[in-house]
Design brief:
It is a single chain. This protein has 400 residues and is α/β, with parallel strands linked by helices. It contains 13 helices and 21 strands. A hairpin with a 5-residue loop joins strand 6 and strand 7. The model has no long low-confidence stretch (mean pLDDT 93). The chain binds cytidine-5'-monophosphate (C5P). Cytidine-5'-monophosphate binds next to helix 11 and strand 16.
């Protein structure tokens, strides 16, 4: 599975750096191409010569390579890699990554890399447990970087606890299953809608909603991580799509979102409509700012197109169509009704009654209702993990 894969390893200053020699060897033996970038502190623990010999590539250690002033192109390194593995990731390097500090080649490569990033922390137990480190790790996970959990055991300080870098064999397995995962949706094109829509009333006002786009963007990331080509049609949202397999199309109104969906729907195998689309939009959009006049102001609204329902009508046998239902009462009955009316394969139900679920939160609690009558309920979890649950349901449907 690693044959021909391009793995960039970033080594920072920790005693665990010596284990990267073994890991490099495992990768090379499995047919991967390996390049290494080191922080200055990493030199105290492992030599570039060791890693250059094992990786069969020169090791990148500084912005300027030699006395002739040859520059190391960190952008090229980041673009070359299929995955960037930072191991061992010291507390210092994790902190700098979390805050965009860029004072060595590893960090510059991290900031410019477009590929998925994995990081394997290694440090003493108290450093790892410190709120600052935990917050920094959470920030990196928020960026979509994948944590390879440290182990518990004997530490270099002589203390015992959590902080040992995962063993080379464990890291190897993580990278291997990461590439396995990438195969599962390879060749599939997916349409995802996300975020709110804004329906203009006049040049400065609109009707909108509190959707942040977090759930839809998390699904886009998860689908792309499994190798799918994602077309993400997003209403106004500050979320960022990082994966290069995601093509983002920005829209503002429900009508624009509908138009963009229609353009691409026939080319997709899977569509997940997650956006909180306005059900009504003003009939007239005033070309100038509406002035204050009298106690009452009436704005006449007309129904927008139900994008999901329209795609349900166009749906071909081999296409999967998935919708969301955000309900406040009669949740399940309403969701089931929508699933039928809109011709869906499954509907993801989240209730506004559940604490921590719904608009704006980083967490969500869902149930998945299938058209065959089965139901699967999940606990409250980060939207990234919820997205993973949804992707797994899709993979199961594709492989039955
Ligand atoms: O009927 P309701 O709006 O509750 O249905 C929610 C589902 O329908 C979501 O998947 C949402 O993205 C989709 N939807 C849509 N177009 C609309 C309204 C909702 O695609 N105009």
């Amino acid at each position: 599975m690693l044959e021909g894969r391009k793995i960039l390893i970033g080594i920072s200053g920790s005693i665990a750096a010596y284990k990267i020699a073994t890991l490099t060897r495992l990768f090379v033996k499995a047919g991967a191409q390996v390049k290494v970038v080191m922080t200055p502190a990493a030199h105290d623990f492992v030599t570039p010569v060791t890693l250059a010999t094992l990786s069969k590539n020169p090791v990148n250690t500084a912005f300027v390579k030699n006395n002739a002033g040859e520059w190391t192109n960190h952008v090229e390194l980041g673009l070359w890699a299929d995955v960037f593995l930072i191991a061992p990731a010291s507390a210092n390097t994790i902190a700098k990554m979390a805050h965009g500090i860029c004072d060595n080649l590893l960090l510059a490569t991290y900031l410019s890399a477009r590929c998925p990033v994995m990081f394997a922390p290694a440090m003493d137990l108290d450093m790892l447990a410190h709120t600052a480190t935990q917050k920094n790790i959470a920030i990196l996970q928020g960026f979509g970087n994948n944590l390879i959990e440290p182990n518990s055991g004997e530490l270099a300080s002589g203390l015992e606890g959590k902080g040992r870098m995962a063993e080379p064999e464990e890291i190897f397995q993580c990278i291997n299953s990461f590439f396995n995962k990438q195969q599962l949706l390879k060749g599939k094109t997916v349409l995802i809608t996300a975020g709110p829509t804004y329906e203009h009333i006049d040049p400065v006002r609109f009707i909108g909603n509190h959707s942040s786009g977090k759930m839809g963007f998390a699904i886009a990331d998860a689908m792309a991580a499994h190798g799918a080509k994602v077309i993400l049609i997003a209403g106004p949202s500050s979320q960022q799509a990082k994966n290069t397999h995601i093509t983002r199309i920005n829209v503002t109104s429900a009508a624009e979102m509908f138009e963009e969906c229609l353009k691409v729907y026939s080319k997709t195998e899977i569509a997940i409509l997650c956006a909180a689309v306005a059900d009504y939009a003003p009939v007239q959009v005033s070309t100038s700012k509406i002035k204050k006049a009298g106690n009452l102001l009436n704005i006449e609204l007309h129904q927008t197109k139900d994008i999901l329902k329209e795609l349900g009508k166009l749906k071909k046998k081999k296409q999967l169509l998935i919708g969301f239902a955000l309900e406040t009462d009669n949740e399940e009955a309403n969701a089931l009704k929508k699933m039928k009316e809109k011709n869906l394969d499954f509907i993801v139900l989240n209730s506004l009654n559940d604490k921590g679920a719904g608009f704006g939160f980083d967490t969500n609690q869902i149930s998945i209702l299938h058209h065959n009558g089965t139901k699967k309920s999940f606990g409250l979890k980060p939207k990234k993990d919820v997205a993973q649950d949804i992707v797994e349901q899709i993979i199961q449907l594709l492989h039955v």
